[in-house]
Amino acid sequence: MNDANRSFVSQSRSTAGGTASAGAGSSDASAGIVCEPAAEGVVVARLWGELDLATVPSVRGVLEDVVPRLAPRRLVIDLSGVTLMSSRAIELLVSAHRWARVAGFHVVLVGASHRSVARPLRATGVLKLFETRRDIPHAVQPGLEVSEVVPVPRNGLRQGAGGVR
Which residues contact 164 (CB under 8 A, 6 or more apart)? Predict the structure, then answer.
């Protein structure tokens, strides 16, 4: 199977000695990442769990290993499953933004309106660096208007046409 059609999975859990990698079927992982091609030139990286000092190095390792091999024009980072975003996770996103600028691809965040993600990104000003979309299909589809980007209101709740959701 070639890299263009393959998913890459990494899960990690905190241990007394640091970070341990666990298989895709592990139920005790506290954070993880799956990277997979979603469309031509688009890679989706789905992150979940607690992104902290113990787990961010594994997530970073997968991104640094997989993204260059898949050579996307757009990297969609799905933060919908993230329950804790530490300063290390914010540093990871800033690094991804810098890396994308140098390598010539674009980073889009999904799930940035979730409270556990929105608060630290807004408080640090990092959210302003990224285009955000409400879901993966809107992030993958290149023709959607910028007006369809979901804003992150100050209270951390998503607002839609029918009010707060």
Answer: 153, 157, 158
Name all domains of the chain by residue range, CATH numbers in brackets.
Answer: 3-142 (3.30.750.24)
Distance of alpha carbon 20 from alpha carbon 137, whole angstroms: 32
Q: Could you give the angle at which helices 87-103 and 56-70 cross, rounded to 10 degrees?
A: 20
Q: Give me the numbers of helices (H) and strands (E) for the chain, helices first please.
A: 4, 9
Terminal Cα-to-Cα distance of the chain (whole angstroms): 41
**Report field, pTM of the whole predicted structure over 0.85:** no
CA 143 to chain centre: 21
- For 93-115, how does the pLDDT look when each residue is reduced to its tens digit (9 = 90+)? 999 999 999 999 999 999 999 89
112 close to 132: Cβ distance less than 8 angstroms? yes
Residues whose CB falls within 8 Å of the CB of residue 61, separated by 6 or more in sequence, listed in order: 10
